[in-house]
Design a protein that fits this description.
mainly beta; Tachylectin-2, Chain A; six-stranded antiparallel beta sheet; 34 strands; binds beta-D-fructofuranose; hydrolase; Glyco_hydro_32_N
């Protein structure tokens, strides 16, 4: 189905209750609805927004077009949780009904100050010639979850030297000052980030562009985030326009980070190391972080990418968010571990081990469609060790480690209904070791594979048949050993 401009730019309230019910019915009939991931009730979800711990709960929002699986008029949808893994749908949060957000309430962040949650976002507008004009906006959420927008935009136009692609404000506080980092495009069509400062959270002053070593790294940097861990500064962003380079940058757009000395806010200099990709899978974009109640740095991303079709489109919805991950810094690299609260979703623990694995093996009690699986391999004399999951006669998703070419690969070429094949069907990352752990979170239509306690992550949608429930462990070319634990997972 093609969508006209009128259809794409309808607000939530412009659609009748009957139309909404019909769409909901179609969505509910979809075989690929997730069981423990945040997904839209209908329509399209993209970036996570406004992630914050406020008033005894985690509040998270996401970019939402309610009426179908297309990037139409963006609203903010609201979900809450007390443990970051059991989420409750709270409904519409930001509805784009002011002049400065006529073409969408785009991405942004949340920060708690003096008992209120402040949400920052980009109001996107288009003129008659369809030229874009961005406004940076603010809304306040009270303890009663009431949302009040500021009287008007807090920043009304891009600074000189930058195009209309200025969006996705992320706000934090250092000492008594607030800072806002925004994704931008220079007039020469290269990406960068801009920094603003405020004393009172309301009036913002432009400090300048953050000076990095990446002068010409893609044409736009979306969804920036700046954090500090272990006295290092980390700039996370999603650059567009980066060419693939071997196993790197294989998706349509990338998400990654730079680690450096803390940003020097007087010179605007950020002295950093190389750009590193956050995720090695097929579907990961626009992540954002917050601090947990007990001070852990938590990141959540969009398990999807723009400008691609997905098999759920036919059922009137698209995409979900990733599981939350805890970030720690080790040797200038971000280690990403599934949040420990995920243990709250577990039931039915099963275990299996084999000291002499030299073929493909399955076990009658190890199977499923929605589970966590932790597997530790000793490579031994074998050449390849790995796991096939969501298998049936004609379908399987494979993750394996090849000890000969020193690569870990995720292969979704036979996962079920195809998605994004123009960008290839395997993803790989280098690794050299005698042992390897695979920590899988498999949902109805996704997998998140954490390698060696969070050193790498492969995040991907997969669209297998519901009878593809098999799990097989394998070793080729010699003998390996492994032990595994499995739990069923579901939101309570
Ligand atoms: C990233 C992005 C953001 C923008 C939002 C609009 O996926 O393009 O830059 O704010 O999506 O939905």
């Amino acid at each position: 189905m093609t969508w006209s401009r009128e259809e794409r730019y309808r607000k939530y309230r412009d659609v009748s209750e009957k139309e909404r019910m019909l769409l909901k019915k179609k969505v509910n009939a979809c075989p690929w609805r997730q069981s423990f991931h945040i997904q839209p009730p209908t329509g399209l979800l993209n970036d996570p927004n406004g992630f914050a711990y406020f008033n005894g709960e985690y509040h998270l929002f996401y970019q939402w077009f309610p009426h179908g699986p297309v990037h139409g008029l963006k609203h903010w949808y609201h979900v809450t949780s007390t443990d970051m893994v059991n989420w409750q749908n709270k409904g519409l949060a930001i509805e784009p009904n002011e002049f400065y957000e006529s073409h969408g309430a785009f991405s942004g962040s949340g920060i708690v100050d003096q008992g209120d949650l402040y949400l920052f976002y980009t109001g996107n507008t288009r003129d008659e010639e369809w030229h874009r004009h961005p406004y940076q906006c603010m809304a306040k959420m009270t303890k009663e979850n009431e949302l009040v927008k500021a009287a008007g935009p807090i920043i009304s136009s891009p600074p000189k030297g930058y195009t209309e692609h200025v969006r996705d404000p992320k706000v934090w506080k250092t000492g008594s000052l607030f800072y806002m980092i925004i994704g931008a495009q220079r007039e020469d069509k290269t990406g960068c980030v801009l920094l603003y400062q405020s004393r009172d959270i309301k009036e913002w002053e432009f400090l300048g562009e953050v000076i990095t070593k990446l002068d010409a790294f893609g044409y736009m940097w979306e969804c920036p985030d700046y954090i500090e861990l272990d006295h290092k500064g980390i700039l996370i962003f999603s650059p567009q326009g980066i060419e693939a380079e071997g196993d790197l940058y294989n998706n349509i757009y990338q998400s990654g980070y730079l680690v450096g000395w803390p940003l020097n806010r007087s010179t605007m200099n950020f002295d950093h190391g190389p750009f590193q990709e956050l995720d090695r899978g097929f579907d990961f974009y626009a992540p954002q972080t917050t601090l947990s109640e007990d001070g852990r740095r938590i990141m959540i991303g969009w398990m999807g990418l723009p400008e691609m079709n997905y098999p759920t489109d036919e059922n009137g919805w698209a995409h979900c968010l990733t599981l939350p991950r805890e970030l720690v810094l080790k040797d200038e690299k971000l280690i990403q571990r599934p949040v420990r609260e995920l243990a709250n979703l577990r039931s039915n623990q099963e275990e299996v081990a084999d000291q002499l694995l030299n073929e493909r093996k399955s076990y009658p009690h190890i199977y499923g469609t929605t589970y966590e699986l932790e597997v530790e391999f000793e490579v031994g004399t074998s050449e390849v060790v790995g796991i096939e999951f969501r298998t049936s006669e004609n379908e399987k998703t494979i993750v394996h480690y090849n000890h000969l070419n020193k690569k870990i690969t995720l292969d979704r070429s036979e996962s079920g209904k195809e998605v994004g094949t123009t960008y290839g069907t395997t993803r790989a990352v280098g690794y050299d070791g005698e042992t390897i752990t695979f920590h899988l979170f498999v949902d109805v239509s996704s997998c998140e594979v954490f390698i060696n306690d969070g050193e790498e992550v492969f995040t991907s949608r997969i669209f297998p048949s519901d009878h593809s429930t098999g799990i097989q462990f394998f070793a080729q070319g010699g003998q390996a050993s492994f032990q595994a634990k499995k739990w069923d997972l579901s939101m309570r």
